[in-house]
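note to self: dont lose this again. the chain is below, predicted strucutre after it. 398 aa total, dont forget to put it in the shared folder this time
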Amino acid sequence: MLSSSPRPAETSALPPPTPGWRDRLAACLWPAVMLLGLGLLLALAARNVSANLAAAGMEIDFSFLWLEAGFDVSESLIAYSPRDTYARVLLVGILNTLLAAAVVLVLASGLGLVVGVAMTSSNWLVRTLAHGYVELLRNLPKLLILIALYVMMVRYLPHVRSAWTGPFGAMLSNRGLFLPWPVIEHGGRLLTLASGLWLAGWVLWARLARRRQDRTGQRHPVALPAIAIGALLMVVLALLGVVRIGWSVPELKGFNVAGGMSLSLQFTALVVALAVYHGGQIGAIVRGGIIATSPGQREAAQALGLDWFKTMRLIVLPQALRVITPPLGNQYSNLLKNTSIALAVGYSDLLSVVSTSVNQTFRPIELMMLVAGFFLIVNMLISALVNWFSHAYRLKGR
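---
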């Protein structure tokens, strides 16, 4: 008689037990205790600060924001003169900080993507150079990189009358970087409205194409039709004469350069230094995300005839993006805060403006509160966007 070995009992997935009232109370109690303790600490700190200021005959007062600042800044995105208020000069510093952070974010992300992919390359030379770049830049202080780069620019870049010229009339000298820039001569509002409608149409078409791909498996192009429609829209508006766009090219006039868009040497050095520094950090993060994807999927893609570029773009990087999003958010928050080193080269960011304002108004507490509030709000927005992206693109169970 044949005896069959006993089969393991098939276990059915049981639903998780419903938490009782004690579990719910414990889950709410600890956060409440932590918030209460934090509130008590903040109240105690505020009381001590108020008592010390009262002993010195001072009090927290923000009315100085409407007084005349009386000092100039190196550059500004909005109209500003020393006769303007402290509130306006703080706005100038905030806009300069956001501009530098935005440019660095784009450059560092692109550089980090290239370096991270190169670190996983099968080519020994490419892989070694990428690893060397990351190890070198990650272990150098960013302030040292900034100062060294700024000194090299000041010392070795030519005088403005002997400026290096590049494509489309770009010029580089010890006065800064000058680039050709489009200028809206007529129809700015209509162009803004048309651009907004075009961008909304692009987003709508991308969502429709993605839903169709999820439903049928057919992939439709998104970027090329949107770009073609945008170019066609610009041509139609120009032919109708409702929008006129000129092209401002930098040219040497006297002892300076006129026309185009000018980037100061301080801004250029700050952007390049932070871009190469955070590019190495992001490169290491991208490499980790690529390694985290299954190598079997890359082999399957190669077996199906996909080349290396399509394998990376369609299979590897979309999966790696889910892995690298949380550390990327942390890196972007650090990037925003690291713009404060601009004070070392004289770029008028928020910290530089606040430092001068403190010396004139003797209001360090109020100004530091404004700086802390600015960085807190922006970093919370970055964290919220990262959390939304992680939630929207997470793997969903069927």
